[in-house]
Amino acid sequence: MTVKAAIPVEPLQVAALLDVLAPDDVRIRGHRIGLEHLVFAFNRGETAEEIVQRFPGMDLRTVYTLIAYYLTYRDEIDRYIGSLEQSSAESRLAWEHARTAVSHRVGAILRERTSAEYAP
Length: 120
Hints:
With 120 residues, this protein is mostly helical. Helix content is 59%, strand content 8%. It is elongated, with a radius of gyration of 21 Å.
């Protein structure tokens, strides 16, 4: 015998909250915020309320739903984020190797200026 619950017990509808632009580009619908940014904030210990303050335009219901989604699929989402970080590191390394000597020199000068500005 199946009993109808007095409250909704259907699964959360996460697909309506996410845009999958590419296999490695999952964003929160209506924003340019990647799912990984919300996960990073959550893993730093930020509350849902603090995440809403960090990302104007986000609503609390969406943040809580996506945190629940992350906690349910943590291993898969962590693998997704790991692949993003690896791809980013590889792209950065390729860019560094492709830079000209002049570009490296300009970068060094800018780093010197920045560190001098912040030196005590």
